[in-house]
Predict the structure.
Amino acid sequence: MYWSNRRSAALAAALTLYSGSAEAFWRLPCRGQAGVARMDPLVQPGVPSDHAHVIHGASNFALTVDQDILRASKCTSCAVKQDLSNYWVPSLYFMHKNGTAEMVEEVGGMLAYYLLYGDNIKAFPANFRMVAGDPFLRNFTWPIPDPPKSEWSGDQVSQFALQQKAIGFNCLDYSKQPEASLYRHFLPDKDYLDANCKDGVRFELMFPSCWNGKDLDTPDHKSHMAYPSLVMNGDCPPGFETRLPSLFYETIWNTYAFKDKEGEFVIANGDPTGFGYHGDFITGWDPDFLQQAVDTCTNPSGEVQDCPLFELQSEEDQQQCKFEVPEILKLENAIFDLVGLPGNVLIQRGPEEATKGATSQPALGGISIPTPSLPGLDLPLPSLIQNAVNQGVNAINGAASSSAATTPAVTTAPVLTYSPAAPTPTPLTTQSEVEVVTMRMQVVVTVDCDGNPVGTTTRPASAIATATETETITTTLPPTAPAAAKRDQVPGHIVHGHAHRRRNYKGGVDGWF
């Protein structure tokens, strides 16, 4: 609790330094993670998202959600029971030298600040949602560090510039004077973090707070919102005069736990720069109650305990609230992956924008093994486990090497000419289209407390992708001695008029404990 209060006091001071004023606010602790998964019902509803997120808030978080679904949640991983919203950001990973991705510990969960900047602030309406940041950015196109705000003008106050300045990476050392919020807009490299940030790094994200007053969402999940002229506060642009609560996300990652280890830190969307950091919000508040809180909860302490409207729950209860992971993702481990970022996301360093949907390997190229909860087991996993899994891959690939799906159509048929006097070899050429079916086979590797494999279990293979390939086969027929012409040697007769089926099985392995 002492550490938590010290962190909160430091952030409150930093926020004041950045904004230049001390407005009313409350700080919503979300000490529990509702889950970590490749899910984003705002940007990619109904399907697994491209990259992993750490999610806080209502237990009814799912691949598709709306206000009614969230309001029916049984619990929340945040402190205020009346808040059934969801808050999520991409998780941070440490990429070990051997290619494994290990999620960095999120310290203390998330803090979601409700900053009450501006006049006549309105509550989020039912079904309101928005995104802050751009996951594809890999560059910062403005002066570093930010010039004084009094000098911002022209393009410096464009929405594109303000969006980029709404991201911060705060190097934490509680024995020193704190950095101001949103002071640094890029993720420092590992050498800097090791040398200077013994209490980790705080990821900060400011959401726009100026609303167009009519749209609950837009196709890009941004165009209905705008930043005020100074990011946190300032003037709203024309057409966006309605002020909503200013949301500010804070998550602290224990990067210092990887001090002196070889590797780098990468955000789940394949971003080692930090410029592509982003976050999502879907409200689950009752709008009337939230409006009452906006008007009433104005104690300058910012503590939710100082607002008499809020019904609070313990940190233990917050940490017990989890959402149900959909069946399609239950075998995927978003905490530890042997071969790269969850979803096989390609690491793209910029400065050009990242390519949407880019992956680091084919869908079957990797094996994702969840982290075993075994005492004394140090990560990354022992190479003995990796060897066991590799043996399983080799066994599968050796046991079945092809698969088939359709009957190919013969497009070229040879014509043999009867020539009894001079028999010569005859080339026979066929061209066919083959549908290749990609299969996935799952292998469970069981380990003991020392991390040694003690058994494996193989689950049935299943098809996960198809592709059509064209192949040409040329066969040389041996010469034959002159003989009486048979029906298949009569000039002009097609000797290869039937089709062949090919089996072209491509094996792959997923592993879990």
Summary: Residues 106 and 421 are 84 Å apart (CA to CA). The chain is about 15% helix and 25% strand.
